[in-house]
Amino acid sequence: MNTIHNLGYKIINIFWRILFAMTLYFAWTSPNIILGDNSTFGTSTTWLTTYAIIIIIALIVSIIVFPKVKNSFSFIFLRKQYITAPLFFLLIIILQILFVYYVHPVSGFDAGMLHYAAVNPKHVLEPNVAAYYSLNRNNLPITLLMRWIIVQTGYSSWIFFDYITLILVDLSAILNILCVALIRRKALGTAIYMHCAWLLFFPSIIMPYTDAWSLPLVSLFILCYCIMIKKNLHFIFKTLAAILFGLTIICAYFIKPSAIIPVIAMILIELLSLTVRKEHFSILRLVQIVILLSIISGSALSTYKITGNAIDEQRYIKIQAWRSIPAIHFMSMGVYGDGGYDANQALEMAVLPTKKQKTEYSKKMLFRRLKQLGAFGYLKFIVKKQSNNTADGTFGWLKEGHFFRENQKPTTKTISGKLKNFIYLYGNNIADFRFMAQAWWICILSIIALGYENWKFRDFLKLSLVGGFIFLLLFEGGRSRYIIQYLPVILLLATTSFAPAVARARRIADWARRK
């Protein structure tokens, strides 16, 4: 049994090291991190980025050189972190609210279609709307949820759904922090700081779509997992967590199916842990595991049946189920161009009348491309696609077609215009945003790389991310927007890796000084 355990972890670590090393390398070499003129985007960072870099360098040097500065910094941000960190989190929330208030443009891609269909029953009678949902049935659940929210609250504006997205994203952060409180309480302050930094460079709160809406669900089922594996918690809490776990994974599946990949990682890690003989594994423990698994299964099956029936029986949007796009279409698109959306294949999916014809066409395109690439060519393509999937710290911001409907060249005379300049395609500060977001992404990935340690929960997080990487390599990817759904995993990895990363960095620095 130990052989199975060791082999399993060896395979996980091989995939992890290869895929994560590529992600780290591509993040460090991303054009987003270019300071000054950027020929790739035709933009340039401004004095704002330059001043930010100077201030950060000056602060780091001051902490190293001046003991008083170091002691003050340590007192405020470390010894008083349980006061300082929540205040920072509160400040970030205020900034988010102001950001949404001043910046809430309507999107023109899928997010825009979801909102358009949800706000008015007359819209769903339009042929293009019915055709969209017939082809993209996966977006039906979130549209029905948005419609339910509109009916219950009476509000339907885009800014209203931006605020809902803001709440969901922040809820994900809070749930992640609760996970850290359970599994590594000493890292609680670090967790809050880490999530504050993420939220500061995450403008997707103004994009009400499955990427952001799936985040609290992923965070919640990870929290439930943490509760169930916590040894000293009362069994009643684990029972409640099991009920919520089963419900949440099904809700996540309906909102964004690929978001449940961490659940598969949980199962595999738990199965591997069972292959190692445990001295204190009692009959009572075995009974508890069976009870929890039964509760999870019952909760999940019930939720799936109720939700599935509600979607199948809905009458809000009349769809033609036989026109839906088969899964193999996304595999076919995933081997062309950048490994992402292919307009020509998408058009064929709309033209071909039956699901069988769509499937046959996608198979033909997939096998044709694989034959054309060959083994070496496909390997080369996969390496490039991993870069496209994971290198961009803005998470594919502005890379969807018709990202915003309004003019992409904002004014600089109003507060709204000044903020839009950071996130609009032709904004004066778009390069500043790209640089800062990429710097944050590089820091997160570097912390994870340095903070390696043997720990089952970390192994689960690693395997979750490996699963996400492989999924995006096999299916439609091509931009890092699809990584958003795995941000709870990445943020938890970075948070729990921070202390060992700092310790390892100090050892490396000491070694370098001795040399």
Main attributes of the structure:
515 residues; mainly alpha; two-stranded antiparallel ribbon; CHIM_prot; Integral membrane protein
Quick summary of this structure?
By secondary structure, the protein is an all-alpha fold. It is 71% helix and 1% strand.
Topology readout:
Elements: H1 2-28, E1 37-38, E2 43-44, H2 47-65, H3 67-79, H4 81-102, H5 110-119, H6 127-135, H7 140-153, H8 158-183, H9 188-200, H10 210-213, H11 215-229, H12 235-255, H13 261-274, H14 283-313, H15 327-333, H16 343-351, H17 355-390, H18 415-423, H19 430-450, H20 456-474, H21 487-514
Antiparallel strand pairs: 1-2
What does this structure look like?
- There is one protein chain.
- This protein is mostly helical.
- The chain has a domain of 105 residues.
- It contains 21 helices and 2 strands.
- Strands 1-2 form a two-stranded antiparallel sheet.
- Strand 1 and strand 2 form a beta hairpin.
- Helix 5 crosses helix 7, helix 12 runs parallel beside helix 14 and helix 19 crosses helix 21.
- The chain is globular and about 70 Å long.
- The relative contact order is 0.13.
- It comes from Liquorilactobacillus hordei DSM 19519.
- Keywords: Membrane, Transmembrane, Transmembrane helix.
- Model regions low in confidence, pLDDT < 50 over at least 5 residues: none
Task: Profile the largest sheet.
Answer: 2 strands, antiparallel
The spatial strand order of the largest sheet comes to 1-2
Oligomer: single chain
Write down the overall geometry.
globular
- Succession of helices and strands: HEEHHHHHHHHHHHHHHHHHHHH
> How much beta, percentage-wise?
under 5%
Whole-angstrom Rg: 24 Å
Helix share, percent: over 70%
Mean pLDDT, as a whole number? 92
Protein name: Integral membrane protein
Transmembrane segments: 7-28, 48-66, 87-104, 163-183, 190-206, 212-228, 235-255, 261-276, 283-304, 435-453, 460-477, 483-505
Keywords: Membrane, Transmembrane, Transmembrane helix
InterPro entries: CHIM_prot
